[in-house]
Write a structure and sequence with these properties.
- The chain is an alpha/beta fold and about 375 residues long.
- It has two domains: about 180 residues, P-loop containing nucleotide triphosphate hydrolases (Rossmann fold, 3-Layer(aba) Sandwich); about 190 residues, P-loop containing nucleotide triphosphate hydrolases (Rossmann fold).
- Strands 4-3-5-2-6-7-1-9 form an eight-stranded parallel sheet, sandwiched between helices. Strands 10-17-16-11-15-12-13-14 form an eight-stranded mixed sheet, with helices on both faces. A two-stranded parallel sheet has the order 8-18.
Length: about 375
Amino acid sequence: MIKLRPHQERIVKTMTHTTKGQVIVPTGGGKTMCMITDAHRQFQYGNQTIVVVAPRILLAQQLSDDFLKIIDNAMVLHVHSGETEHDSTTNSNNISEWVVNNWNTNKIIFTTYHSLHRIQQSSIPVNTIYFDEAHNSVQQHFHTPTRFFATTNNRRCFFFTATPHHSNSNERGMNNVEVYGKVIEQVPAPELVDAGVILPPKVVVNQCEMIRDRKITCEDDADNILSSIDFNSVDKILICARRTSQIVRLFADSKLGTELYARGYNWMYITAKTGAVINGIKVSRVKFFETLNQWGKDDTRFVVLHHSILSEGINVNGLEAVLFLRSMNYTTISQTIGRVIRKGNVNKQFGIVSIPVYDRVGISTSKRVNAVVNTIFQQGQPAISTK
């Protein structure tokens, strides 16, 4: 039995009565369960093919795990280059052959925006397609297959995001109704806060000693990170670094690792260039995320650093604070804040959003973060990016 919250019931009901549209739900609002419920109902008709599109392989795998906890009456295929225990291919002929071999049963395909064109090339019939983190679909290389699936064969097509991207200059914007349809449901963040679904963020600007007349060193970065950690007094912290090299230098050329140990923190980081590291030891991505999820659930104190990989879609229960070392666009700021406003620990009253200010980057970051928080949590509107 699938139990939905009132806002999820509204979304699923609306999806039942329409074939295309945008569903705007704040991060942590349970949009995945809306997809799963809709898919579960569609599969009752039999012989349905559903595609789920994610921005990263990791998120495609996470979505697969979430769907299959409830759905047990469908064959599963992954179309991306990542490892999976399920059938997997990125060859369009193999995709077509797999569908033919499973013609008389329900089918669900998990893919990424990067590999979606392979499904287009396979020419398989698709009954329903869910675009998760749909703002990614406006990127130039991803928009062609997105447009194809949204405008051909009268299939059911739904775009889920907390942060819509609009365009004033070309068709690659979610304000293009021909492709993306209208907004069929929009859930304001204050409604979810009042209902106890998510927590409100608390912005904490840590005014450090300004550095104006010299180059900032990794020791400066380490000192200000430690100052912010000490000031906020939290156990599980996500840090958004300015660049991969900053992360590497923080642990190679500063006292950060030693000082974190002295305070009782484990540390870990992950980037596309370096891979995953836990307490100075390189590990597989699988090991990294298994450890991250376990530490999020237990009493382990930890700090996890990244540049961009953890900003979107990855669910880690227990994160209490995010520390911004760099400025971002409104979409990434909103998505990052979403990592720490999930309920998780029952004792959490809010998600801390901390910005150490010791140069011009800190000043601009604090202004942007406050603007995003005001838009989403005070005005109840999504953080729309326009280009």
